Amino acid sequence: MIVSVLASGLVLASNALAGSETLKDAFKKDFLIGAAINHDQIFEEDSRGVPIIKAQFNSITPENVLKWESVHPLSGQYDFAAADRYVQFGESNHMFIVGHTLVWHSQTPPWVFQDDQGRPVSREVLLARMREHIFTVVGRYRGRVQGWDVVNEALNEDGTLRDSPWRKIIGDDFIEKAFAFAHEADPQAELYYNEYSIENGAKRQGAIALIKKLRSKGLLVSAVGIQEHVSLDWPTEQQLNETLADFEKAGIKNQITELDVDVLPSPGRDHRAEVSRRMTAGAEANPYAQGLPASMQTKLAERYTALFAIYRKHAANLKRVTFWGVTDGDSWLNDWPAHGRTSYPLLFDRTGQPKPAFDTVVQSQRSIPNL
Ligand code: GLA
Q1: Contact, 71 vs 79, CB < 8 A?
Q2: How far apart, in whole angstroms, are the C-alpha atoms of residue 217 and residue 221?
Q3: Which residue has the least CA distance to atom 8 on ligand 1?
Q4: pLDDT tens digit string along 310-359?
Q5: Bridge partners of residue 11, in order along the sequence
Q6: How far apart are CA 136 and CA 251, in angstroms?
Q7: What are the residues whose beta carbons fall under 8 Å from the beta carbon of 355, sequence distance 6 or more?
Q8: What's the first-to-final CA gap in the chain, in angstroms?
Q9: Any catalytic annotation for residue 153?
Q10: Which protein residue's CA is at the shortest distance from atom 5 of ligand 1?
Q11: Domains, the chain, with CATH or none
């Protein structure tokens, strides 16, 4: 048993899973609790992760299997083997099933944007490809996948539109088209705009303006997805509070869609969860290869407790909190922005045991009144 004392004075005991309250039950009056799940978990080959997913979470997001490169790797060729299993997994376990993601500049194969000679295709051709992809993928799971990340990461840090191949070829209205196609393909599905770093003011205002503009054209945008790849000190609690309040004031439902807390050093203190960002890892960049010291476990627990206190404060307008992974060993942060580090961003450790942060999060639900 691990016992830790938080600065707040809370004394916490970390027991094995058996008998302890689950995340989804602790927050059942507040919001859904989700996890991004990987290929081995979807195929139930991960005997450590799967019981945790079934016990703790009531929503799932596919980490990779519904991204364009996975589901539609070649022109005219779809591979639904993993995606079908993903949806079945969610249905068998009565979970809220999220589709991630339809239109993104990353993990989309180059052929999508090119003709046979490798030259950029026309606006008409790319729109036709986008429509066909969305109709095929969303249409296949119509009525089964309950919400889709329609467009992922279309903004720059200053809130302007990112000059992705989608925008370069189609123009600014590629976002409108994506939402229109998705709604046509499944009129019952919720549709989301998903983004990182929108806790930062300029980008947040860009996201609000974008969603308002889409809605002013009669398009359905059910909620914003705030990815929430955070560190111990970014965003500040004030920034996060303001973010949730600003979307609420704009009449936009919030979702936390990719939560993890990075405790490893980040050179230049660059907080962007920009997937193309890379650094080389020397030993100093991987300080906890042998394990996370108790003092850091406590810091992580305090950070998670503070985050969940804010989520609860905004629970009336917050639909879901989804973690980006199940156990620390699964996390993308072991390989980003540097390969081969040992990261500790989630609530379950590499052996599948709940960490002190798990207990503080569950206990905070019981012991700290809504702010
Ligand atoms: C972004 C994407 C996710 C995932 C993470 C990193 O946040 O939305 O699908 O790729 O990056 O793993």
Answers
A1: yes
A2: 11
A3: 152
A4: 999 999 999 999 999 999 999 999 999 999 999 999 999 999 999 999 99
A5: 5
A6: 31
A7: 14, 297, 300, 301, 344, 346, 347, 348, 349
A8: 31
A9: yes
A10: 275
A11: 2-268+287-367 (3.20.20.80)
